Amino acid sequence: MIYSLDLDITPNGVPQIVKLSQYDKTMPTLAIKLYNGSQVFTIPTGCTAYIEGTKADKTGFQYPCTVSGGVINATITEQMTAFAGRVPCEIVLRKSGERKGSANFFLDIEPSALSDDTVISDSDLPIIQQMPEYAQSCADDAELAHKWATFGSDSETPSATNNAKYWAEQAEAVTGVGDLMTTRSKLGAKNLLPYPYEAPTHEMAGIMWTVNVDGSITASGTATGRSYFAINTGKGILQLSFPKGSYIVSLEGIPARVFGRMGWYNSSNTYIESAIQNINVANTSRPLNVNDTQATYHSEFIIEIPATSAGTTFNFTVYPMIRLATDHDSTYQPYAMTNKELTEDMQAIECDKTTAGTYTLQCVVDSSGNKTYSWV
């Protein structure tokens, strides 16, 4: 469509108005003749014509026009009609960047009955009429989800071995997560090896064995013969006892010419088997299987520098740890008391004195490792 306009470059009267529709995609053309008063305005040679304006969103536009036979042809783009309302426009003549004249007019953009971003309804039914059907669909989905999660006996789709509950149980059985959490709750944190150890810091055959606060053990000096550190002997105060299951025993940091060993004693303190003979620099961790259902066995756990290493100077730190085989994190962690142990200790050391005075807490440990606290 072509709109013809006669515009005066001399400001006078009310500017002309061109009515268009919002989002007009027909690319209408304005055929504009310029006048200077009552005389036809001759466009200077070398001038370029532009149509310029500012839309309702305060953004502007500028497009070049063509000039033929004294008529300026300006094409209206969709961008120029994007916003409804009156758009002030002008035809501007420029030569070498210098403004040579202009004529003003308005584009009156009528709003579209349907904007470009309006969501088109796919149904003429009121929403309220669709609600019962939607609610029933949600209920059906919820019931099916429940069956998949718990395997209801009336389920048609899930089977006894194809539902979330079944596969969760299978995953727990394979990974040992349930066993891991149960054992940790009974025995403490990841490191199941109780601390402090049976042997304190001491010197033996030229080697100073130092027990560190994090449970690691440092050995330094030149060996003059067989020297060892007894984490526990299986017969002393510290009695290691674990539930039936699979474990990993590790001595990270153990060097060459040094080894660790572990053996089991039964409830009569009779040595019956060597569970682990050689934890060394090539194998710093070994599997340990506890088969006794009653968990009556107690463990001997020793780090040893054999007599054949006499004359060798050592300076190393080992990190003893026993963890569940299902706990794949081998990072060393110091032993942590269980909540039960902490509660019992707190209750045991609570002062029962009521008379004014200064008292000392006394701890007596018997041959079985039982502790008795008293305030004296």
What does this structure look like?
The protein is of the alpha+beta class and 376 residues long. The protein has 4 domains: 2-110, Immunoglobulin-like, CATH 2.60.40.3350; 127-175, no CATH class; 202-324, Jelly Rolls; 339-375, no CATH class. The protein has helices spanning 127-150, 164-175, 177-187, 339-348; strands at residues 2-8, 16-21, 29-36, 39-40, 48-54, 60-64, 66-68, 71-75, 85-95, 98-110, 202-204, 207-211, 217-222, 227-232, 245-252, 259-265, 271-279, 285-290, 298-305, 313-324, 361-365, 371-375. The strands form 5 sheets. A 6-stranded antiparallel sheet has the order 11-12-13-20-15-18, with no helix packed on it. Strands 1, 3, 4, 7 and 8 form a 5-stranded mixed sheet that branches. The termini are far apart.
